[in-house]
Amino acid sequence: MSKSRYRIQFPPANTERVKQGEVTFRLIEDGRPNELRFHDYAAIYERPGLYEQLFYDRLRCCSPRKVGDILAQTLHAAGESISELRGLDLGAGNGMMGEVLKKLGMSRLVGTDILPEARDACFRDRPEVYDEYYVADFTDLPAETVERIDEWQIDCLTTVAALGFGDIPPAAFAQAMHFVRPGGWVAFNIRDTFLERSDSGGFSRFVRELIQSEYLDVFHLEKYRHRLSMEGSPLLYFALVARKTTEIPPDFLANFEG
């Protein structure tokens, strides 16, 4: 992967009251400032190494390793091995979670993201990680794509630093879970505030009720520091590993749409 380094500037004003999905930074290129949002993923992925420098070097994100480690530990405690799993990495981006899963020994791994720039960045930076990578909108999957993903016989779904903030809606996450056979595993992280009853948004309600539902059997739920804010304050998330018990019916999802 390219070792390019970028000149990044954070704004002088306090940004802690700005919604996480709206936080911006300045990227100085050819002496000119270019303002980007943290969630302008397409523009970030187009610049080799910028995602890693911004979120992992500067802001100390640890979530791929954290979620990967608790998945492996949970499987070991359950008498199973990550090497036997066939994974679907939803919101795969440029492959950082996939890289962790491969190093942990996952047998087969499929990546998917809605952005073609994410797949391009993954093929550029980590071409060895995924056995297949689909660019697709999981709220509107073509029948052909559904059939191709089904052929992988997925028994583990992962999604890291991708849920909430308008990135992956409930319908997309439910569709991804549909590919996981009953008895398979689900591992993801979520901002801690999404699990608070005071958050009445559709996505927050969906995740809370899914965790408490008969469709998932939660094995591990842990609060941890996902990364730092621009001010150096910890952003707290929950990491979760659960076993899928049965399919999510359409009427469950309908409660959180619209």
In short:
Helix content is 31%, strand content 25%. With 258 residues, the chain is α/β, with parallel strands linked by helices.
Describe this structure in words.
There is one protein chain. The chain is α/β, with parallel strands linked by helices. The protein folds into two domains: 7-58, no CATH class; 63-254, Vaccinia Virus protein VP39 (Rossmann fold, 3-Layer(aba) Sandwich), CATH 3.40.50.150. 31% of the residues lie in helices and 25% in strands. The protein has nine helices and ten strands. The protein has a seven-stranded mixed beta sheet with strand order 6-5-4-7-8-10-9, with helices on both faces. It has a three-stranded antiparallel beta sheet with strand order 1-2-3. A hairpin with a 2-residue loop joins β2 and β3 (32-37). The longest helix is centred in the N-terminal third of the chain and has 15 residues, at 63-77.
